Amino acid sequence: EAQVTQNPRYLITVTGKKLTVTCSQNMNHEYMSWYRQDPGLGLRQIYYSMNVEVTDKGDVPEGYKVSRKEKRNFPLILESPSPNQTSLYFCASAYHGTIYEQYFGPGTRLTVT
Amino acid sequence: LAKTTQPISMDSYEGQEVNITCSHNNIATNDYITWYQQFPSQGPRFIIQGYKTKVTNEVASLFIPADRKSSTLSLPRVSLSDTAVYYCLVGDLYSGAGSYQLTFGKGTKLSVIP
Question: Which tens digits make up the pLDDT trace of A48-82?
Fold first, then answer.
């Protein structure tokens, strides 16, 4: 089954404790992206990647890092999480030629206390 | 990236046809219009895409006038399960020379009432 998976689905952590949210897709998509969703602010893009070793900033990249060492994986790294990064995070992927037709993961709800 | 404007929310009774309009006055020649649907606590789901005139699939229809400065997503005979947020996106599908950044915005929250 074609899918995008994220882990963990739920995470509660404390300020400053480094964490990684994993994202994996099995569709051989070139394009992958991370979004955060907050009440009243909609869905905002954090980082995206057009292919292995190619990443770029979205609308809200501050406080986040990403890496794309393999085509199927695109982890989101919070080196020093802060309470304002409490949010619902989505990973998505798409073929290079149709980046507007994205497949989304189930989401990761992160709480930073 | 073309800026889009949608109503923040809409209410509809079950069984009615719902039309959600998106304005995109500065749409570029190579831009397509894409709509997503998002149920509570789930990731968005692609539902329809078009360039001009009318596109229809099993979920919805998309109407695009000749000037392409707006588009209308039409949901026939909605049910409670159509309660969701609907996002309109405008951009160059293939982004050969453009940006690969996508902007979803806040979308339109559709509430279907029994």
Answer: 999 999 999 999 999 999 999 999 999 999 999 99
Q: Out of B41, B49, B106, whose CB is closest to A42?
A: B106
Phi/psi-derived region of residue A28, left when phi > 0, alpha when psi is between -120 and 50, beta in every other case = left
**CB A107: neighbour CB atoms within 10 A?**
19
How far is residue B7's CA from residue B56's CA, in Å, rounded to a whole number?
A: 22
- Record: contact B103-A45, CB cut-off 8 A: yes
User: In A, which residues are within 8 Å of B87 by CB distance?
Assistant: 42-43
Tens digits of per-residue pLDDT, B18-34?
999 999 999 989 889 99
* Cβ neighbours of B106 in A, within 8 Å: 40-42
Radius of gyration of chain B (CA): 14
CA distance linking residue A60 with residue A79, whole number of Å: 15
> Containing H/E element for B84?
strand B84-92
Instruction: Verify whether the Cβ–Cβ distance B44 to A105 is below 8 Å.
Output: no
3-state secondary structure of A24: strand
Distance CA B16, CA A44 (A): 31
DSSP symbol at B41: T
Token pair 């079950």 in the structure block, residue: B14
